[in-house]
Every structure is written in structure tokens, then in C-alpha cells.
Amino acid sequence: MGLFVLAPLIGEYLHGNMSVTALPWLVLTAPLYGGGALLIREVARRAQRGWSTIFLLALAYGVIEEGLVTHTLFNPSYFGYPLLSWAPVPTLGMGAWWTIFVLTLHAVWSISASIALAEALVPRRAAQPWLSNRGLALAGAVFVLGAVTNWLATYEIERFVAAPGQLAGTTAAAGILVAAAFLVTGRRAEPVGSPAPSPWQVAAIAFAVTSAFIVLGWFPGWPTVVVYLALYAVSARLLARWSKRPGWNERHVLALTGGALVTYAWYAFPSQPLVGAGGLVDVVGNVLFALGLAGLLWRAARATRSRPSARSGAGRPTHIEQTDA
């Protein structure tokens, strides 16, 4: 239930897309975000897969939400914003900048960071399934319900439906990402090289990279697309190297998560909500969400510090430490 609520709170409220006055909209957003996050986590953990699988499934989730549910990948005027005019790809009827930007928001923050934070709060159960078969089926039904209701709500506002070819291409892209998620290596090799960097260093770099990503979003266009691709390449390289080093464990995963989530927290203040009241009440809400995040990160840090593997780094690595970053 914590993950079910965390996913929409992080995905829509922490970064300021929805104001605190729009909290009743959780009825609409939680089934989609929370149901999706639960499904992805359960499927990955039941298959004993790592973060590469979760990230690719989260990317597939973003493709489904933005391409099949809300259609923002193809809508030329979503909420009045000309999303497709920035780095346009006319043959596909899409915008390269918006596609990379919004899919990253879902893959990194809405799903992956939500799962990582929820697992860090209960580190002893982080690698275990949390749902029974019946619970998994229920989560799937809730997700489908959330997708349908969000589609209806978006259509009521936008009156836009993507072309059949765009919908077919989106479905194919999501399927390819799901397949790729289970073709990637499930476990990393034995640790090699110098010790992993400190969690604080990892958190600082994660904050810097994600903040750069967000700030660049204020300058949409082809130059930003190029920089985004470079950030992806550098980040993937760093994570691949760090996760192979001795001592890499759940504290480092939490550090990555914390750095990214703090970026979302500061981003809310210069942003204007798309849904809900702005002004002072929005600022107060942003403060409350940021304080809530700080409390959860503090609690998660205490929980992971209590793990013997996190304190000493000795002995056989746990499943969390073995799974790829």
C-alpha cells in the first residue's frame, strides 16, 4: 500500500505537477501509477531480476501511459503546450525532446525511484514478492482500471486520439521494452576493482545529473536532446562501473534514489501546477511534500544502516547487492 501511494505522490505531487489542493485526484492517479509500480516490482522480484529489468519495465510503463493512455507523445497541444514543436520528428508525428523528457520522468522517478524508496523502508523484504497471486491479479485489474479512467479523463479535456499507426507503433515499442527487460543480465559479476564510492558521493552525483536533466528541460530543442543522450550514456557507464565494485549495496541504491528525489523536491518550487491551486497554498504544499520526503529518506537510511551487509560490506552479498544497478 505504501508503494501504491508513493508512486503517484512522487510522480505528480512531489515535483509540482499537481498542487496539494489536488490530492483528491489520487483516486484517479493512484490506480495508474501505483498499480503500474506494483506490477513492475512484483514481476521483476518474482523473476529475481535487478534494476536493469525494473528500469526497462518502467520505460515501457512510460510509453504506455504517454502513448496509449494520455497520448501526449502525439498531441500537438497538450494542456495548451506545443510539445511536438520542440525537436520535431514529423514522420512520426512526435517531438524528440518531449519523448525523452517525459519517458525519463516516468522511468527514473514515477516508477524506479518509488520502488527503490519503498524497498529501502523494508530492506529485509526488499527482494521478496509482496503480493499473493490473487493480489497480483488485483493489482493488474487496478492498473487497467486506472489506465481506462485516465484515458477517459484526458479525452474529456483534450478531445484528441492518436492515429492508428501511432497507437500500433506505441504498442510494439512497449512490447519490445518488456522483452528487453527480461533479456538483460539478471545478476552482476563478482565485484572487481577499487571500492565503490561512498553513498554520499553517489547521492551528490545523482542530484547533479538529475538536476541538470531537469534544468535542461527549460530549454527544449535539438541541442537539449543531444545533451540528454550524453547524460544517459555517462550515467549508464557510471552505474555499470560502480555496481561492479566491492561494497556496492542497498545504501548506494538509496543514495541514487535520494539524489534524484531531492531534485524533484526543489523543482516543485519554480514550477506552476497543471492541476490545483497555485500561489501560497502551492508553496506550502511543496514544503510539506519535501518534508515528507526528508522523513522517508531518513527512515530508509536508518533501516538500511541496520543491515549487517550495509554496515560491514563483509560476507556473501545479499540478493540486493548482487542484482545489477
Automatic annotation (TrEMBL):
<feature type="transmembrane region" description="Helical">
    <location>
        <begin position="94"/>
        <end position="122"/>
    </location>
</feature>
<feature type="transmembrane region" description="Helical">
    <location>
        <begin position="252"/>
        <end position="269"/>
    </location>
</feature>
<feature type="transmembrane region" description="Helical">
    <location>
        <begin position="165"/>
        <end position="186"/>
    </location>
</feature>
<feature type="transmembrane region" description="Helical">
    <location>
        <begin position="52"/>
        <end position="74"/>
    </location>
</feature>
<keyword id="KW-0812">Transmembrane</keyword>
<keyword id="KW-1133">Transmembrane helix</keyword>
<feature type="transmembrane region" description="Helical">
    <location>
        <begin position="275"/>
        <end position="298"/>
    </location>
</feature>
<feature type="transmembrane region" description="Helical">
    <location>
        <begin position="198"/>
        <end position="219"/>
    </location>
</feature>
<keyword id="KW-0472">Membrane</keyword>
<feature type="transmembrane region" description="Helical">
    <location>
        <begin position="225"/>
        <end position="240"/>
    </location>
</feature>
<feature type="transmembrane region" description="Helical">
    <location>
        <begin position="20"/>
        <end position="40"/>
    </location>
</feature>
<protein>
    <submittedName>
        <fullName>Uncharacterized protein</fullName>
    </submittedName>
</protein>
<feature type="transmembrane region" description="Helical">
    <location>
        <begin position="134"/>
        <end position="153"/>
    </location>
</feature>
